[in-house]
Amino acid sequence: MVNFKIIIPIIIIIIIVASLIIFTSNEETTKNEIEEKRIESGPFAIDKAQYNVGEKIFFDTDGLKFDEKGTVEFLRPINDTHHKTYIKIPFDGIDTQQFNYYFEPRLQEFTGICSMDDIAGNWKVKFSGTQYEDINFEILNQVSSWDDRLMEPVC
Asked: Where are the transmembrane segments (predicted)?
């Protein structure tokens, strides 16, 4: 009888702790799914709407038509109204209908990107040579908790 008085409360505590762990992990999964929703325009997509400085941007193309040819331009913000080309990626549907590309915007003196302020802001992805809508995304002026690199100004 004494064993049951000890065992039953222990089992109840284990069930409560397990329930809390399951509930918390489900909540975190839901938050991550919302934050990392793909943004698409025609056959083009990026993996999420917001990035931290130092994160890689994953660009995906799938289902490009044979007659589609042009350039993907990633434009970084200069100010609230102007952007400057950061990188250009040519594409031609005759050569390939599917490709992936990723890059990490970095501080580089020769490109004039001297500090995190030069990377942070609202970026655009333009699809020159097509009728597809631009994709907009934001790079936040912060680094991820796992990123221990120093983002000191380089110029």
From this structure: 6-23
